[in-house]
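FIELD: query
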Amino acid sequence: MAVGSKSFAFERNVERAAPAGKVLAETGVGHRTFVWFQLIAVYALLEKALWAKDMASRNRWGILAGITILLFVLIDRPSIQRLGLGLPRGLGMSLMLATSFAAALGLIFTVRWAGGAIPANPTWPSLHTVWQYLIWALLQEFILQSFFFTRCEDLYGSSRAVWISGSLFAAAHLPSPLLMTFTLIGGLLFCEMFRRFRSLYPIGMVHSILGLTVALTMPDSVLHHMRVGIGYMRY
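FIELD: result
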């Protein structure tokens, strides 16, 4: 009887313990913690790159941030679709480009109506640097969408991820009040486009079109060569 009682008690304890383990697995506590760690680590490295005292240090922190992002992406083993590296389907690209051209023209007409000069900065940006900004815009969108948005989406769902990722994008442009305003609006637009169409290429084009329009229409006295972080302070 003693052995049978112990066996019965053990079986009941296993039955009671099993649901708790199942709940832990379903909630993915370990996964969520790791996702939070990735977000905090990468954002901290990016901020170090923006606020380091000298250019050499900023470059080192920037390279470290890039390596860390790639490492976390490889660990995640995402699909091409999750990363947004596939081509847009349907009318996605046409809609995005039409939206960007409309926004760019609206900003240009608004500045002209207010009496502003276009170009606002005759010597900047120069035409030979436009292609560099196109590449940089696409890289920013990879960081924003393929890294931050997808992880915020894991934690809070796609609708909330738009607001969280867009806000993080704007905060990264401190302390420039002009760029923070534009990047909050633009970041929400970019993230919503990514949520709907899941392709980086047209979003990168939209980003570059709007960014160059801002550089074309805003005086450098407030734009500070579109610098952020300590570069804005030292302009």
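FIELD: remark
The mean pLDDT is 87.
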